[in-house]
Write a structure and sequence with these properties.
Nuclear Transport Factor 2, Chain: A; 5 helices; 142 residues; single chain; globular; alpha+beta
């Protein structure tokens, strides 16, 4: 696929996230895809489970693509995530609080699917916005 086609595929992927269409979202992933987080790599089934739980905790999640760059079969995005904490997340019941945080991703595409993905989310910002961090910690960071 061309660089422009790869960027278009990722834009469609993000649009699918923004519609909250979980089943269609899974169709973008290769069956043997790997998602790399800060701590470890996850396979297709684990990614499905994590994404489904996150979509339930933040059902109105929307990504705004701030930058998209591609070379060869890789597409890099810098996005801003916006959502409301409406379901249980990391043991915290819904707070109704809004989150806004930066998400960086690199997707390696193969045969029109996401074969590998590296993602970094500003989880510290997200956790502070929904109240998962102690007030003492937040005061020390100010």
């Amino acid at each position: 696929m061309s660089v422009q086609a790869n960027k278009a595929l990722i834009r469609r992927y993000v649009d699918t996230w923004n519609r909250g269409d979980f089943d269609s979202l899974c169709e973008f992933w290769a069956p043997d895809m790997r998602h790399h987080t800060r701590a470890r790599a996850q396979g297709y089934e684990e990614v499905k489970s994590v994404v489904k739980a996150f979509m339930q905790a933040f059902p109105d999640l929307r990504f705004q693509i701030d930058d998209i760059v591609a070379e060869g079969n890789r597409v890099v995005t810098r996005m801003t995530a916006h959502a409301t904490h409406s379901g249980s997340y990391m043991g915290l019941p819904p707070t109704g609080r809004e989150i806004h945080c930066t998400v960086l991703g690199i997707a390696r595409l193969e045969d029109g699917k996401i074969a590998e993905h590296w993602g970094v989310t500003d989880e510290l910002a997200m956790m502070s916005q929904i109240g998962l961090l102690p007030e003492e910690y937040l005061a020390a960071m100010a």
